[in-house]
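Sample intake sheet
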Amino acid sequence: RGFSQKACEDLAKYSGVPVWNGLTDDYHPTQIFADLLTIQETFGSLKDCTVAYVGDGRNNVANSLMMGCAKAGIRYVCCAPKELRPDEAVLAEADAVAKRNGVDIRVAENPHEGVKGANVVYTDVWVSMGEEAKTAERIKLLRPYQINMDLLKSTGNLDGKLMFLHCLPAFHDS
């Protein structure tokens, strides 16, 4: 675990042994391995799943979830305001991987439209570490992306084939 993606990549390049990225500013693959296993254990398969990430689409969890879904052949929708869309380079890389695996990656500004058909609704904190000065701005921007029963109903999957995931920690009432 660290902060710098470059430091992690440099360590892997020069170490001569496998290096596991536990978390960096750009990616959090360990979290996503656990989440994909949870999805598979719950639904019996990753096939025919759609994951909708709702919130800040440019953070390390969103980046890794998008890439993990692309590699695992899972449809992925990132529901985020335009100010918090995924990085275009990360999005393009994930989209290329997804196409090779027969699935698509989408970005939706309207969360109610974006979650339609989702089996998994995933979110993260609204204010990442180091961004505390932006708390009021972030809450205002992400309030329409709050996970609540109204949003979950928009999936059309309240019949039991629906899972909610959060990478934690979670801060309630925000």
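Comment: The two ends are 27 Å apart (CA to CA). The first helix runs from residue 5 to 15.
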